Amino acid sequence: MKLVGTATTAEAAIALYVKTWANITVIDLELPNSAAIAAIRRILLANSNAKLIGLTTHERDTSRPEASAAGLTAILAKDRIEEQLVALIRNRIQPRP
After folding, report:
1. Relative to the CA of 85, which of 22, 29, 42, 54 has its CA 20 to 30 Å away?
2. Domain 10-92: top CATH class
3. How many other β-carbons are positioned within 10 Å of the β-carbon of residue 86?
4. Cβ of 25: how many Cβ atoms within 10 Å?
5. Domain locations along the chain
6. Would the pLDDT of 37 be above 50?
7. How far is CA 71 from CA 2, 63, 76, 92, in A?
8. What value, to the nearest 5°, has the Cα angle with vertex 5 and ends 64 and 57?
């Protein structure tokens, strides 16, 4: 497993994805102005097979349904990153060959 980059804005995340074609992309659902949802849609327009994990602070985040509908592969609460992110990547999401 290798981290290929980080981004602090939706536009930067989209550009990084297009540049790297990462096997798995982790995106913060709390980007301002619903930018995360737009980024998810744009990444999936670039590659409909992209694997995206959304991170949220709250288990009951109101953006979860919209993010799921936009095409997220999985959603994970930020307080569970340490215990679940690597397992989620290794066990639930199969990287593209």
Report:
1. 42
2. alpha beta
3. 11
4. 25
5. 10-92
6. yes
7. 23, 13, 14, 15
8. 25
d(CA 41, CA 45): 6
**d(C-alpha 91, C-alpha 18), whole Å:** 25
Task: Tell me how crowded residue 50 is: count the other CB atoms within 10 A of its CB.
Answer: 19
Which residues face 44 on adjacent strands?
A: none
Instruction: Tell me which residue has tokens 């992110």.
Output: 85
pLDDT digits (tens, 9 = 90+) for 38-83: 999 999 999 999 999 999 886 666 677 888 889 998 888 888 888 7
* Residue, of 43 and 85, whose pLDDT is higher: 43
Residue 47 CA to residue 39 CA, distance in Å, equals: 12
